[in-house]
Structures are given as structure tokens and as C-alpha cells.
Design brief:
about 55% helix
């Protein structure tokens, strides 16, 4: 019976979807299907009760929560409450029999037992219980008892302590948004709890019923304008349909519309592809549009409920702030109906939004939205509109103002090159947001530098004050406009900016800077994260592109904005240190810095320096060289390897290993580190003429993984692996490195031109346990030496770069083909 009911529920859900049923109708039909089963079980168990009901006690089976709303989806919990007039032996016996039978049915029953008085007490003490009981719906049992609950207890739950409920509900919304991503435009959104998801729709309905005393079923009908009410209902229906489809596609309770689910959900919902977009991309663009409608509705309801509860005191002043706009009641309003007469006056409204820190009244917001068509190919050249827009970029509320412009679609009309990014989904490693949201977050993060109290960001904050703000913000706004095509988006974006800079009538210097930043906006991050930053070729390549310190500073700021907006965790102290180091070295190069000088011949230090390769001296400070010399001398004195750990203060540690050269030394080191769960972030390997090897390896998760006696444990494993003669067994890890990632294709890229002395090999693949060890072992197997390495493992993806030599020079074509064959076999 258990599997029969569950399977029948899933089959019915699938039939409803494929038959084109709406989300609301489908959820309602699934609820009715379960109602029938529960009524049969409930009445059957009461009839079989062995105890006599001496006092004519009453119980009722009540649907609450989502099930009470008639919003059942295939794998969601079926929330029920057994309601009793009092606790008695008969009530407890009957309730237990009903519950046991319900559990035996195999349905995901979530239950509670309450008397009338307990319902009121629980509802008023916990907001989740309160909102669940607000959705109470009769299923079976005593109708009289349920009616008493509705007319007495239900009304008290709705309206008692109304102001406290509104306050707590608004706090709950804010907290939930923070937990689930704080953005509508996540690439893998939570359909139920995320911003713009079903829970936001429910919150709007609860606030309307309690705060504004709206009737159940038509909560927002008299609160929203007719077309916005229709938009809300359609968006609500879309989310329900998406959730049902997601449960069926996952074959389990799952609320996250993840990459691997989007294609099947799109198919169930009936989406087909076009020449430009795949079905899943169309699904996601519609998802963001509908989620935005729910968010806008929730904002309207929240404001109305807050006003009704007396949270906003009426303002008795009116202040004129421009020719066409006033601040009244703490909101921006139009002076009269003629205020919004052209593109310039629309842009004037947003300039007022920027300088006052106030928000638009609902009427003004709708008036602006209704005049979208005022902005067209001709009016975009308005001089006054341009001046207002540039003043917005010079101000202190850039992100908020541009976000409001984008939400109302004014920004899309005014700069259509940016408008093409609306809700654009581009599947890229590590990215969490749509392209338009990523861009706006980049501007926010740049703007937040002005008020930062983080010491690690203070240098960037100082640098921001040295650049022309409006030019940098405009470049950030446009940096990804080339995305969505088949070519490199930097090149495509560079070709598209001419029309924008012409409309803004920018001077030559600003045009050149914007063009440079858009064309090169990934250059600094690519070199810092995927090349050896101490290599002369890397520094020279960056210097050759930026030309002067001004461009370098602007590119550094652009890179910070872009990287920090990929996802909240992507910008890290380690990445920041790489970028800052490369910035500093390149600035010194541009300013003509000279390399460090060492003592004349005959000294111990000079002998050591002459033994090491030139690139060792370029990548090492005088203090580094002196420290390494001490370790080398200790190694020669003891005859054993020297191992040194240095915590770097940013969560990472520098591991220095001094040893005499032997085959496969790097793979041995990696094996020891991997077996302890330590992540290699970068490695520089130097071999002197005398056979002394200096390996410098940065461990990215040192502080995160630290345990007592960690250094001793790791050193012991390193010595065991370095001392082993041959035949090392496959690595066995104590820690998992994360799940495999199937969304992005594996590739291996060869660069035989960027470095004068090495062949650069970049490997991109799903991460797995022992991958780095296998790659290092493959290089050893083919006789190739690793000169240095940059290791990036994040979000289940490995992106590793190796500088290789064979017989002290670059790899030949034949050797490259041999290495590629071996790598493809293991990746």
C-alpha cells in the first residue's frame, strides 16, 4: 500500500504536468488525491477504535502548512494536525491509531497534536507554527470542532499581537534572504526558500492577511494594481509548476534548481530551444522574471503592512529637491503629471534617487515604468540625460541607483548594450549569478571599498581615490556586454563600446581607458591565478599590456570588482596576495626597478647564488635567499632533507623542502601532502647545478585544517615519501577533495610561446582524489621536469598550470604529444 500511494501521487503529478495543467491546479489536485487517502485511513481507524468514547470527545484531522494551502508537491511533507477538544484516553488512543496507520501508508507525514487552547498557545509563541495554522483546512472528523477553531482560535492567531507578528515576519524574511543567497539572480536558485521563491509569495499573503486584514484566497487583489495582481498570480503559478517538476526530475525532495536539474525540469515544463537559447536557458530567464515579480509584490505588501502597524511615522514636510521632484512622506514624488516628459526628466528622477538616499513612491515608480518608450535611439543622445547619468556614477549611491534603474528596465533602455545581459545565464566555473547581477554586484563591491574597514582592502580603497570614478564605474558596467555570443567576450565587448562612448561624448583619454579595461579585464586575474607571478615573462606580459601605472591601477580595481562578484567566497586572502604581488612587481617593472645585488665572489652567499638558476634570484628577496642558504647548509651538514613550515598570516603556509635531486621528487611531496588533506595552491621548484633542490610550496588550507602536532605529522609523511626508493602506491587520502563536476568539459592547453625557457601546460577538469598526484606522476613517467606550478582547486573543479622542461629546455613537439596522451588517459 505504501509504495502504491506514493507512486500513484508521482504518476498523477507527471500526468498533470505533461497535460499542460497549471501549477496551482496541479498542486490542488495532488492535495485532493492525498485527502481521499487520509479520509479513508482516518475514518477507518476511528471505526475500529476499541475504547468507548464516554464523554463524546471530538477530534478532527486538519491539513496545515503547505498541504493546508492545497499546495502539495510529490515529495513534500504532508503537514497534518490532529485537533481535539481536550486530552482524554479515548482521544489519545484514537490519535495514535490514526498516526500509526498514516505512517504505515508510506506518505511523508509531518504531524502535531493539539487541543484548541494548545493551538492558540503554540501559534502565538512561534511564528512558523503561527503561519502553518493560518493555512488550516478541514479534512475529516468533527466539523463542529474545526469550525470552532476557525471562528475563535483562528481569528486570534491571525490578529492577536498583530504588530509583533509583522515585525517578526519581516525579520524572518530578511534572515532567510541572507541564508539563501541574498539575490534573485542565482544560477542555482532555491525555488522554495530563495529570494523570489514560493516562501516570499507565502510571506506576502501572510502579511496581507494579518497586517491588512485581507480575505484568504484574495489576499493581494485589492492591494496590488489589477495588472500587478495578475502578474503575481502567474508568477506564483510558475514557481509551483517549477517545484513540482523539480521534485519529479529529482525523484526526491529537492528545492534547488541546480545545473544538473535544469534541463530535465525545462523538458517537463514544456520548454523547447531556439537558435540562440537552449531550453534550460529559457527556463532560467523566465524564472528570474517571475521571481522578480514576486519580490516586487512582497516589497509592496511589506511596506503597506509596516505602515498599517505604525512602523513608519507620517512625514509632515515636503521638500523640493529638483525642478520636477519633491521628497514627501520620506519618498520621492513627482511635482506634477508633466514631470516625466522625456529621457532627461526620467534620468533626473534617478539623480534625485541618488543624492537624497530616498526611494520612489509606488506611484512614481509605476509612472517611470510606463514611460519606457520615451527612451529610444534618438533620445539616448540627450545631453541633460547624459549629465544626470554621469553625476549618478560620480555619487555615493551608484549600486542602489543602477539596481533600481535595472529593476524598472530603464537602464536596459538607456544602455541597450547592457540590456542584452538581462537574466543572461552563462555557465562558467565558480560563477553564482546571472551576468547582469554579477555586473551590478561588481559595482557594489567597488563602491563598498570607500567605507571598508578591512585592512586587506585598504590599499585598494586608497587606489580607488586615485582614479576617475565615473569612468571606472562605466567600464565595470560594460565589462561583460560581449557575453552571450560564441566568441571571446572581451573582444566582442571591446567592439561594442564605441557606440556607448559616442553617445556619452567621452574625451579620448576616458574612451581609451574604458576600451583598455574591457579588452583586458581578465588579464590580471588570469596571469595571477594561472601563471607563475615571479616569472619575468609574466611580469613583462602584464607590463606590456598596461603600458603605464595609471592603467595598471585601474585594471587592479576592475579585477577586484570582477573577481569578488563571482560568488561571495571567490575572493580570498590568498588570491588577494597573488594579485597584489603581481601588481607590485609590475609597477616596479614599469618604474624601472633594478634587481637585488649580491656580494662579490668568494662569499658563502655568492657561491649559493651562483649555484641556483637565474629565475630563483628573480623570484626571491634577499631575506628569502639568506634563509634558504641556512637550510641548504643544514641539509648538507646532516645529510638529510630539510623541511620548514612558515605560516603566512592569511590562512596559508609556505612549505620549503631542501633535498638532493632524485626522480619524481614533486610527485612524492604531493603524495605526502594529499594524504594529509593539504591543498597545494602553488609550487616553485628550483634545481641548482650541484643537484640541490629547493621546492617552495604554498598550502592554501593550512589554518583551516590545522590540528595539534600537524607539522610533525606532515614532516614525518614527507620524509617517508622522500626516502622511498621506488614503487610508491596510489595515494590514499584522509580527506575528500569534493564532488566531481560534470557541467564543464575537460581540456588541456599547451602554451609554448609565453615563456622563453618552459612549456606551459594548463589542465582543467573535474577534481577528484589524487588528481594532482597522478598528474605529477605522469610528468615524472615521461621524463619531464616541473619547474613551477600554479594549483587551483575550487568548487569541485581543478585548474592547474605547470611550467615544464625536458633536458633543461622547452618540450619538443613529439614530447608534447607524448605528455598529452598520458594526461588524457588519467584526466
Amino acid at each position: 500500500m505504501a509504495s502504491d500511494i506514493k507512486n500513484a501521487l508521482i504518476d498523477q503529478a507527471q500526468r498533470l504536468l505533461t497535460g499542460g495543467a497549471s501549477g496551482v491546479y496541479s498542486a490542488n489536485q495532488l492535495s485532493l488525491f492525498v485527502d481521499a487517502s487520509l479520509i479513508e485511513i482516518f475514518t477507518g481507524q476511528l471505526a475500529n477504535s476499541t475504547l468507548r468514547n464516554r464523554d463524546n470527545d471530538e477530534i478532527a484531522l486538519v491539513a496545515v502548512g503547505g498541504y493546508g494551502r492545497n499546495e502539495l508537491v510529490p515529495f513534500s511533507d504532508i503537514d497534518i494536525m490532529i485537533l481535539a477538544n481536550k486530552r482524554s484516553l479515548w482521544v489519545e488512543d484514537a490519535s495514535q491509531k490514526v498516526l500509526y496507520a498514516l505512517w504505515d501508508s508510506g506518505l511523508a507525514i509531518s504531524h502535531s497534536f493539539r487541543t484548541l487552547s494548545e493551538s492558540l498557545e503554540d501559534g502565538l509563541s512561534d511564528i512558523k507554527t503561527r503561519t502553518s495554522l493560518m493555512e488550516a483546512r478541514f479534512i475529516a472528523g468533527s466539523r463542529r470542532l474545526f469550525d470552532e477553531f476557525v471562528t475563535d482560535i483562528g481569528q486570534k492567531i491571525l490578529f492577536r499581537n498583530r504588530k509583533d507578528f509583522i515585525s517578526e515576519q519581516l525579520r524572518d524574511i530578511f534572515k532567510r534572504h541572507r541564508i539563501y543567497g541574498d539575490s534573485v539572480y542565482l544560477l542555482q536558485p532555491n525555488v522554495k526558500e530563495g529570494i523570489g521563491g514560493l516562501r516570499d509569495a507565502h510571506s506576502a499573503l501572510w502579511l496581507a492577511r494579518t497586517g491588512l486584514k485581507a480575505q484568504r484566497g484574495d489576499e493581494l487583489k485589492n492591494l496590488l494594481a489589477p495588472h500587478y495582481y495578475r502578474h503575481f498570480r502567474l508568477a506564483y503559478d510558475f514557481m509551483l509548476r517549477a517545484r513540482i517538476s523539480l521534485h519529479i526530475s529529482s525523484a526526491r525532495k529537492n528545492e534547488v534548481l541546480s545545473y544538473d536539474m535544469q534541463k530535465s525540469v525545462a523538458g517537463l515544463m514544456g520548454f523547447s530551444g531556439t537558435r540562440r537559447f537552449r531550453p534550460e536557458e529559457i527556463l532560467m530567464r523566465l524564472y528570474y522574471r517571475e521571481a522578480r515579480k514576486i519580490v516586487d509584490s512582497l516589497k509592496t505588501v511589506s511596506a503597506a503592512a509596516g505602515n498599517a502597524a505604525g512602523y513608519r511615522k507620517a512625514a509632515f514636510f515636503v521638500k523640493r529637491v529638483s525642478d520636477n521632484y519633491l521628497v514627501s512622506g520620506n519618498e520621492i514624488v513627482a511635482k506634477d503629471a508633466s514631470a516625466l516628459r522625456d529621457t532627461a526628466t526620467i534620468m533626473e528622477a534617478f539623480h534625485v534617487f541618488s543624492i537624497t538616499g530616498k526611494k520612489f513612491s509606488q506611484a512614481l515608480r509605476e509612472a517611470i515604468r510606463s514611460r519606457l518608450l520615451f527612451i529610444n535611439k534618438k533620445t539616448r543622445y540627450s545631453k541633460r540625460a547624459r549629465q544626470y547619468f554621469l553625476e549618478i556614477l560620480r555619487g555615493n549611491r551608484v549600486y542602489e541607483t543602477l539596481s533600481e534603474m535595472h529593476n524598472i528596465a530603464i537602464l536596459d533602455r538607456y544602455i541597450p548594450e547592457f540590456g542584452r545581459l538581462r537574466h543572461l545565464v552563462v555557465y562558467e566555473p565558480y560563477h553564482r549569478y546571472t551576468v547582469d547581477e554579477h555586473t551590478l554586484i561588481a559595482i557594489k563591491n567597488l563602491e563598498d571599498l570607500k567605507l571598508t574597514k578591512q585592512p586587506a582592502l585598504s590599499f585598494l580603497a586608497d587606489l580607488l581615490r586615485s582614479v576617475k570614478q565615473e569612468t571606472l564605474y562605466l567600464a565595470v558596467l560594460l565589462h561583460d556586454i560581449g557575453k552571450g555570443g560564441s566568441k571571446r567576450h572581451e573582444e566582442e565587448g571591446y567592439k561594442m563600446i564605441r557606440s556607448v562612448t559616442d553617445r556619452f561624448d567621452l574625451n579620448v583619454e576616458d574612451r581609451q581607458l574604458i576600451g583598455f579595461l574591457i579588452k583586458n579585464h581578465i588579464l590580471l586575474s588570469r596571469l595571477a591565478l594561472h601563471r607563475d607571478i615571479s616569472s619575468p615573462e609574466t611580469i613583462a606580459q602584464l607590463a606590456g599590456n598596461v603600458v603605464d601605472p595609471k592603467n595598471l591601477a585601474a585594471l587592479y580595481l576592475m579585477t577586484y570588482a570582477d573577481m569578488s562578484a563571482v560568488n561571495p567566497e571567490f575572493w580570498s586572502e590568498w588570491k588577494a596576495s597573488l594579485l597584489h604581488s603581481l601588481y607590485t612587481k609590475t609597477l616596479e617593472h614599469l618604474n624601472g626597478a633594478v634587481p637585488a645585488e649580491y656580494p662579490e665572489s668568494g662569499s658563502r652567499l655568492n657561491g649559493f647564488v651562483n649555484d641556483m638558476p637565474k629565475r630563483y634570484l628573480i623570484s626571491s628577496t634577499k631575506d628569502d635567499v639568506a634563509r634558504d642558504l641556512c637550510l641548504v647548509e643544514k641539509m648538507r651538514g646532516s645529510g638529510d632533507s630539510e623541511i620548514d613550515f612558515l605560516s603566512r598570516g592569511d590562512g596559508t603556509a609556505l612549505l620549503t623542502i631542501i633535498a638532493m635531486d632524485k626522480p619524481g621528487i614533486f610527485s612524492r611531496i604531493v603524495r605526502a601532502l594529499s594524504s594529509n588533506g593539504l591543498n597545494v595552491a602553488s609550487a616553485k621548484l628550483f634545481t641548482g647545478r650541484s643537484g640541490v633542490v629547493i621546492d617552495k610550496i604554498v598550502i592554501s588550507n593550512w589554518d583551516e585544517l590545522w590540528w595539534e602536532d600537524m607539522e610533525e605529522d606532515v614532516e614525518r609523511d614527507l620524509r617517508l615519501n622522500l626516502g622511498a626508493e621506488s614503487g610508491l602506491q596510489p595515494v590514499e587520502l584522509r580527506f575528500s577533495t569534493g564532488s566531481r563536476h560534470s557541467l564543464f568539459e575537460t581540456f588541456i592547453e599547451i602554451d609554448n610561446e609565453s615563456s622563453a625557457i618552459s612549456t606551459i601546460v594548463e589542465c582543467f577538469s573535474a577534481d577528484r582524489i589524487g588528481l594532482l598526484y597522478d598528474i605529477a606522476s605522469t610528468f615524472h613517467k615521461t621524463g619531464v621536469n616541473i619547474i613551477s606550478a600554479v594549483i587551483n582547486t575550487e568548487d569541485g573543479i581543478a585548474q592547474d598550470v605547470f611550467y615544464l622542461q625536458y633536458n633543461d629546455r622547452k618540450l619538443s613537439s613529439d614530447k608534447i604529444m607524448e605528455v598529452l596522451r598520458e594526461l588524457h588517459a588519467i584526466i
